[in-house]
Design a protein that fits this description.
Layout: E1 2-5, H1 11-27, E2 31-36, E3 43-49, H2 53-62
Antiparallel strand pairs: 1-3, 2-3
Length: about 80
C-alpha cells in the first residue's frame, strides 16, 4: 500500500502508468487497486494484492512500480 499526492497536471500520466502496471500485475496473478480521497482530490492510495509477499514484490518490480515503497500488509484469515 502506498499513498501518493499528485497535482492536477500529473494525474493523467499517473493514471496511464497505473493502467499499464495493472495489466502487468494481472499477468503475474496480482491485482492493482487505486483509491482517490473524496476530501482531497490530490491524494491517491495504490494497493497491490497477491497471494504472498514475495509474489507481490516480484510482480511490482516487473510492473515498474517501486518495490519496498509503502507498507506491505498480510491478510488475516477469519
Amino acid at each position: 500500500m502506498r499513498s501518493v499526492e499528485l497535482d492536477e497536471h500529473a494525474v493523467g500520466g499517473e493514471l496511464a502508468r497505473w493502467r499499464t502496471a495493472r495489466a502487468s500485475l494481472e499477468g503475474s496473478g496480482c491485482h492493482l487497486w487505486i483509491f482517490r480521497s473524496p476530501s482531497d482530490q490530490r491524494r491517491f492510495v495504490e494497493f497491490v494484492e497477491g497471494r504472498d509477499p514475495s509474489s507481490v514484490c516480484a510482480a511490482r518490480r516487473r510492473a515498474g512500480l517501486e518495490d519496498g515503497d509503502g507498507e506491505l500488509l498480510i491478510e488475516v484469515q477469519l
